[in-house]
Amino acid sequence: MIPKNKLKLALAIVAIFCTNVVIGQVKKTQPKQHYDVAAFLYPAYATGDPRLRPFWPQGIGEWETVTNMQQRFPGHYWNRQPAWGTVNEADPSVMSMEINQATKHGVNVFIFDWYWYDGRPFMETTLDSGFLKADNVNQMKFYLMWANHDVVNTWDTRLNKYHEDNVIWTGKVSRAEFEKICKRNIEKYFKLPQYYKIDGKPVFMIYDLPQLITGLGGVEQAADALTWFKNETKKAGFPGLELQLTMWSINVNYSGFDGGKTKNPENAFVKKLGFTSATHYQFAHFVNVDDDYMHILDGVKKEWARIDTTFELTYYPHISVGWDNSPRTGQSAVVKNNTPANFEKALRMAKGFADAHPKQAPLITINSWNEWTETSYLEPDNVFGYGYLDAVKKVFVDGE
């Protein structure tokens, strides 16, 4: 006679086995779908970077704009406070904590806003001194979005109220400087194991196409420079360059391009320049954000469909948390009803788009990890706590 406890164990094993048998075959457990959830990271929340002090003299970067909001606009409705405090994101121990929180909640790629002004990099300390020196940096990937726009008085809250729009630094670069930038990024960043690649190709995103074209001397010259960039990337041992466009109207409706008789001048223009993929940076670039979040999502879905049928490049879906630029200016268009629950619905919409395009990388971009002064951030605060991060976790980690 089999002892009762051993009989129960045997029956339990048989029951487990039987639940995985389908018509005489062992049922294979399907692997969970992987997604590359990439959040833009604005590197202005750094302490001790001397190049930030002309805009934020307290030495804490743009946290200064966040913390003195009520002082500048007493009684203003915007009174956000970071749950982690005004941390120095250029500190590797702080970034280690943020990497841990990001990956725990399903964000596994940071897209660093990357700047180059006055012949040298700007706001690079968060990436170099924080992220890349974090003890858990191997848990995440990153890539660069070259934020090549002009710098005006917007960042400086002492001056932006005058609306002078003085150009402090231009985002335009010459061909010689463009080559310097590209060679530097290939050697310094592309070759790192943490750099995000698609099919082995480093991803490099460009924010402001008219600025690039004007600086290089025209469309033909820009196309030649970008071809050179791709070839240099190949010479460095990569199969190519994933050249990513920031998709918004100023970047695809360039007046200096002669589309000829083509029925689709936008696509012809983008194709000529050699862009192979695109995503958005912010909903504010293509829909009216002074609206209810769910209505905004209707417009976003229509725009994705338009891009899908208009362009030959690969489009990666983008979700913005919200928009409210009033910390800088005192007034702004404001996204309404962008609760974590509605943000979760947006993420499911992006996940559905990715699932419907199985031949492309499962990349989804989010604005953003920490755009506090544009009120579009995943980091926890005094209003929703970890609500936005928990929404990402529900969709991409828990699979709820």
UniProtKB/TrEMBL annotation:
Q: Signal: is it a keyword of this entry?
A: yes
Source species, domain of life: Bacteria
Q: Which residues form the signal peptide?
A: 1-24
InterPro entries associated with the record: WbsX
Q: Is Manganese there in the keyword field? A: no
Q: Which UniProt keywords apply?
A: Signal
PANTHER family assigned to the protein according to its UniProt record, in alphabetical order = GLYCOSYLTRANSFERASE, RHAMNAN SYNTHESIS F
- Name the UniProt record assigns to this protein: Glycoside hydrolase family 99-like domain-containing protein
